[in-house]
Amino acid sequence: MQNPSRQYLNVAATAEYLGTTERHVRELVYKRNVPYHKVGRLLRFDLDDLDAWMLANRYPARRSVGDLGGLA
After folding, report:
1. pTM score
2. Which of 26, 35, 38, 71 has its CA 20 to 30 A from that of 6?
């Protein structure tokens, strides 16, 4: 059974959600770097998919020199 509260975003809303431009979102789609659905000619993005994609592409912060315990 489908979740009726599931939200799908268009390109403009996805760009706003990710804090980037529509052009960049379209480039991510072209390169198939981001999960999306195609409904006819329309592109739609699932919020859960976007959140999972963001987590999968997360890089941890580097430790600072002070955190190395003087081994710098």
Report:
1. 0.76
2. 26
